[in-house]
Write a structure and sequence with these properties.
The structure holds three protein chains of three kinds. Chain A is of the alpha/beta class. Chain A is 28% helix and 20% strand. Chain A has 14 helices and 17 strands. Chain A is globular and about 65 Å long. Chain B is mostly helical. Chain B has one domain (23-342). Chain B has helices at residues 22-44, 46-70, 80-91, 98-114, 126-137, 171-184, 195-201, 210-215, 227-239, 246-265, 273-278, 282-289, 300-320, 327-344; one strand at residues 8-11. Chain B has 14 helices and one strand. Chain C is of the alpha+beta class. Chain C has two domains: 35-89, Electron transport complex subunit B, putative Fe-S cluster (3-methyladenine DNA Glycosylase II, Chain A, domain 3); 99-302, no CATH class. The chains are: A alpha/beta, B mainly alpha, C alpha+beta. The interface between A and B is large, with 70 and 49 residues.
Chain lengths: 443, 358, 303
């Protein structure tokens, strides 16, 4: 088989559409109220520690972590808690959220938290400090960062891959933070390396972002074991599994984590937050998102408090009447949102507002599979999506998982993207996985 | 701000798609075939035009009727059956009676495609099965060739074209017609054979000149003669990413290598590899029939195996078989083994250790 | 001619030989099977629905003959057939009370808003994974009829507002709809359980009402009207069917939205108060401004 230097085999090349790459990150005015969902991450939902009418400072914790795989939540505004109740979440379901109303008289400049000397902290202290910041993977998966930083004792992590690929079309947040805050990212990298006792860090950036490559290269301090690697632009390079193959030419074992091969993958935005929050002793209260797409009047990169409703963001940037679909994340893996009342969560890396024109590709007549094998040639995991789709239509979900490695699929969407028959393959796979999980749970 | 005027649309990711659908692909295959059709009509006259039109109409009608019988919405809009009709017409000898063409179309589309569930579920190329059926049912007619560029080919149809169904086609009338036309054109002597059968069945092997093979002024099936136009059409499809280039390349390469080996062993008995590539239906089969997506394997390595397999079988049939032409059966054999090839060549899933029994 | 005779003879001998082998095998490998199994199985509906709790009709027939099950456990068979099986085997029919599937939602498109338009595979299961399905009430029925698809007895049909309606005569309580529904809204209930909470929302008050006109708003009036049988769990009333005799119709008369209803012969009966509120909701008095756009939007969405 061909050896791929600086990329991985298969995958697709969707059009870049990075229209907002030149827009500097901009702060939006504080919203008048926020809803902090208690479950914005993978793992146990946080538990609210405030109640109705409580006054909170900006950055003050409003919910605590429950167990290790969980993170606390912090209030992004100074104000009063109005209620803890059900709110529509990005998955389109109701879940608990702390709702806070902005107090116009309160001091919005002062942020909760005390600066500390991170260098003096022990490994364990550092990891609990990371948990206390409430940081999760900001690339979209929202996996708690401190959990990643504590791999099993028998699997030491030697290499840290810093994910600056941003392979999804439209999104430019990672690019912007690299260009604007390279130093703090390096601080974050060094903190994580210390905490994990890693020997080297590789910053992986796709070669369609030469400016970021340049700036990151320059930001690395003399003698630090950190290097920058330029990768051939391809989707889904930002996925951990693809990234380890592209950078280290090694596979993450099926069903395993990168730590199984001594690798830790972190998104640049996550590391930036760590680099900022840890020394200050603060919590994660805002994030940078790309707002783009044909349905937006002022596309750009915005720093927005978490919990801000999408409706408020749309009012600020201007939504055109022809907007038909709002997507949280990129167009390949993002979730379409059912309502503008959903609050911004930690895992949202972008908001795409697509018009009828832009998404017409997504909905066409479904033709039978003509076995053109484009999905087979696109699947970065080397599955046979065509066959899986056929089995899914017949409802043979268990066979899909047991004999055809359905569970290795991470729903990158390449197969569906290239399918000339418009078969909703990824949707089939999601249904199959959900059904299998249900069956498993019933046992 | 009337942001809530219309409800938002929700759907499953990915939210963008490649702008190329099945009808697009099939339509472009038809487009790639147009020059071949035009050339065929130019060399073989009005009979070829009638023949191709008949197969296309018969195939489309068969599909439409089958869909109606099955109670489904008609699928003729996806152009795939038009491709079948065009290919079937182009693989038949120009003098084929129209009723046989209709019969072949019905057999190919109804039995091979519709009965199996329509587009995507057929395990054999319907056009090829239709042709194979005719070849077996009417072996003489299907090996009766007419010379190219006959005088008066646009003025009158060949006598065999309009014979009544299930009547013995009058071979002598056709021969007399051809003879007359040849004399009118000032040509005498026509063996009534394609370059392949000339080589295979003559007492001393005769080899047609390569340029004539390449440009297509030879006898043969309606669409297989114009090698250069076929290559052009194939190149168009490859550039538009509507065909897997590995299939024709693999097939031609293996045919070239194997026939080259034979040729080197005895240059007087075996034709040169270039002759092999440009004669008969090899080029047409490689570009338009073997590359049929539905009936070819799905893995990259599998596609190479498939191409090599067909190429080798073609040459073996041509050299050792009773027939002068082996492309059709070679491709059908390839179609038959392609599911097997697909499952045998399934690549290793990312992150999995290859199991011993695959 | 002789070739023909030889061929015929060879075939004859071969046939006899193989027949003998088969006959021998039949004797040697014969396993005794109770002939009654076939008899009972022949009478069963052969739907293999699994409502009896056994893996298909044959397994059930075997269990009945072993005495591990009673013929009446087959809910898919009519009373006559059950009786006939019981008579044939000389056992007690053991007919239990008829059970039917019931849906804990009444929010059709006429009363419950769809605020997003789902595009993709037309199935509840698929839609529920895409932003919950697009219905304003994320707990309620999506209405794409997955349950109708899996019902082997044609007992489920979507009404004009895309809410499945159970045909109680045809329903055999096989439970396919219970497992199929992605929102887990179906349950199997004895037909005598008539007081029914047709709502699954976890919201209360205005939030619930905004999403659906027949949503339970969690007021708890029903629990006060029938305190022995109805209690509140969070915002939703729960009927304790062990005390079914206390589950009186008073409960539905006090309900302001019709979320708690009375099921009689497959009819969903709601209280007068709720009916009035619903009528008002459908035809709001012209003077009031607020509800008007809501209704207009709803009709647009559902249309």
């Amino acid at each position: 088989m061909r050896t791929y230097t600086n990329s991985f085999p298969h995958g697709v090349h969707p059009p870049d559409c990075k229209y907002t790459a030149d827009q500097a990150i901009e702060d939006l005015p504080l919203p008048s109220e926020v809803s902090i969902l208690l479950s914005q991450h993978i793992g146990a939902p946080a538990k609210a520690i405030v109640k109705r009418r409580d006054e909170v400072m900006r950055g003050e914790p409003v919910a605590e972590a429950v167990g290790f795989v969980s993170v606390p939540m912090h209030s992004p505004i100074a104000g009063t808690v109005t209620k803890v109740d059900y709110v529509l979440n990005p998955q389109g379901l109701m879940s608990q959220a702390v709702q806070i109303k902005l107090d116009p008289d309160a001091d919005q400049e002062e942020i909760y938290g005390t600066p500390r000397d991170v260098a003096s902290l022990s490994q364990d202290e550092l990891i609990s400090a990371v948990q206390a910041t409430g940081t999760v993977g900001l690339g979209g998966a929202a996996f708690p960062t401190h959990v990643k930083m504590k791999p099993p004792a028998d699997k030491p992590v030697n290499t840290i891959i810093v994910n600056g690929c941003e392979c999804e079309p439209y999104l430019t947040t990672d690019f912007r933070v690299m260009v604007e805050d390279a130093e703090k990212i390096i601080t974050g990298i060094q903190l994580v390396m210390d905490a994990m006792k890693a020997k080297e860090a590789i910053i992986a950036i796709e070669n369609n972002k030469p400016e970021a490559l340049d700036i990151m290269e320059k930001a690395i301090p003399e003698g630090a074991p950190i290097s920058v690697r330029s990768l051939v632009t391809k989707y889904p390079q930002g996925a951990e599994k693809m990234l380890t193959r592209a950078v280290l030419h090694r596979d993450v074992p099926s069903g395993g984590l990168p730590s199984d091969i001594g690798v830790g993958c972190f998104n640049v935005a996550t590391l930036l937050q760590l680099g900022q929050l840890l020394p200050q002793g603060r919590g994660l209260i805002e994030r940078v998102i790309t707002v783009s797409g044909g349905g937006v009047e002022r596309p750009g990169n915005y720093r927005i408090p978490l919990g801000t409703s999408i409706r408020y963001i749309m009012e600020q940037v201007g939504i055109r009447p022809e907007a038909r679909k709002i997507i949280s994340g990129g167009p390949m893996m993002g979730m379409s949102l059912s309502s503008q009342d959903i609050p911004l969560t930690k895992g949202m890396s972008g908001l795409l507002v697509l018009t009828e024109e832009e998404m017409r590709d997504g909905c066409g007549t479904v033709y039978p599979c003509i076995k053109c094998a484009r999905c087979v040639d696109a699947c970065p995991i080397f599955l046979n999506p065509s066959l899986l789709g056929l089995l899914a239509r017949k409802g043979r979900y268990e066979e899909m998982a047991e004999e055809h490695h359905l569970n290795d699929c991470f729903e990158c969407g390449c197969c569906t993207y290239v399918c000339p028959s418009n078969i909703p393959l990824v949707q089939y796979f999601r249904i199959a996985k959900a059904m299998n999980r249900e069956k498993e749970a019933a046992k | 701000m009337s942001t809530e005027a219309r409800p938002l649309i929700i759907g499953s990711s990915p939210h963008i798609r490649v702008r190329q659908s099945v009808p697009d692909i099939m339509f472009h295959v038809c487009l790639a075939l147009v020059p071949v059709v035009v050339f065929s009509v130019w060399t073989f006259g009005i009979s070829a035009l009638l023949l191709i039109m008949t197969t296309v109409i018969a195939c489309v009608a068969t599909e439409h009727v089958s869909c109606r019988i099955a109670g489904k919405a008609t699928t003729i809009g996806d152009w795939s059956v038009t491709v079948t009709g065009l290919i079937l017409g182009l693989t038949l000898p120009p003098a084929t009676p129209l009723w046989m063409a209709v019969l072949g179309s019905i057999f190919g589309v109804a039995i091979t495609k519709s009965l199996f569930g329509g587009l995507g579920y057929n395990c054999f190329n319907p056009a090829l099965v239709g042709r194979a059926f005719l070849q077996i049912a009417f072996p003489i007619t299907l090996t009766t060739w007419t010379p190219p560029n006959l005088v008066g080919r646009f003025a009158s149809v060949l006598p065999s074209t309009l014979t009544m169904p299930f009547m013995r086609s009058d071979g002598e009338a056709l021969q007399a017609y051809v003879q007359r036309a040849l004399e009118a054109g000032g040509v005498d002597g026509w063996s009534g054979a394609t370059p392949l059968s000339l080589w295979k069945f003559s007492e001393t092997p005769q080899f047609e000149e390569l340029p004539r093979l390449f440009m297509g002024s030879i006898a043969g099936s309606a669409g297989e003669t114009a090698t250069w136009l076929i290559i052009l059409g194939g190149a168009y499809l490859i550039v538009r990413n509507m065909m897997n280039w590995r299939i024709p390349v693999g097939m031609l390469l293996s045919a070239f290598l194997l026939s080259g080996a034979f040729w080197l062993s005895d240059k007087s008995a075996y034709p040169s590899p270039m002759f092999m590539l440009f004669s008969g239906g090899l080029m047409f089969g490689a570009v338009f029939m073997a590359s049929d997506m539905v009936a070819s394997p799905m893995t990259t390595s599998g596609v190479w195996i498939y191409g090599f397999f067909i190429g080798i079988v073609t040459v073996v049939i041509r050299i050792f078989g009773a027939l002068p032409e082996g492309v059709m059966f070679a491709i059908l054999l390839g179609n038959a083994v392609s599911p097997l090839i697909t499952s045998a060549t399934q690549p290793r899933t990312y992150g999995l250790v290859r199991q011993k029994n695959g | 001619m002789s070739a023909l005779i030889i061929a015929g003879a060879v075939m004859l001998v071969l046939g006899l030989l193989l027949a003998a082998m088969l006959a021998a095998a039949n004797k040697k490998l014969y396993v005794y099977e109770d002939p009654r199994i076939d008899e009972v199985e022949a009478q069963l509906p052969a739907a293999n629905c699994g409502a009896c709790g056994f893996a298909g009709c044959r397994a059930f027939a075997e269990a009945v003959i072993r005495g591990e099950a009673t013929p009446g456990q087959c809910t898919a068979s009519s009373a006559e057939i059950v009786e006939s099986i019981a008579e044939y085997l000389g056992v007690d029919a053991g007919v239990g009370e008829k059970h039917v599937a019931r849906l804990a939602c009444a929010g059709g498109d006429d009363v419950a808003k769809r605020f997003a338009h789902y595009e993709g595979r037309y199935s509840c299961r698929a839609a529920s994974l895409v932003a919950g399905g697009g219905k304003h009430c994320t707990f309620g029925c999506i209405g794409y009829g997955d349950c109708v698809e899996v019902c082997p007895f044609d007992a489920l049909h979507l009404n004009e507002h895309l809410i499945p309606v159970v045909d109680e005569d045809k329903c055999t309580a096989c439970g396919n709809c219970v497992t199929e529904c992605p929102k887990n809204l179906f349950s199997i209930q004895p037909i005598s359980n008539k007081l029914w909470v047709a709502c699954a929302t976890r919201l209360r008050g205005r939030d619930a009402k905004q999403a659906c006109a027949v949503a339970c708003i969690g007021c708890g009036l029903c629990a006060k009207a029938a305190p022995e049988a109805v209690s509140m769990d969070g915002n939703l009333p729960v009927v304790d069917y062990d005390k079914n005799e206390f589950a009186v119709r008073d409960a539905i008369e006090v309900c302001p939205s019709g979320a708690i209803c009375w099921l009689e012969d497959g009819e969903r009966i709601i209280g007068e108060k709720a009916q009035k509120a619903l009528d008002k909701w459908f035809n709001p008095p012209p003077k009031k401004e607020k509800p008007a756009p809501e209704v207009a939007e709803t009709s647009e969405v559902s249309g």
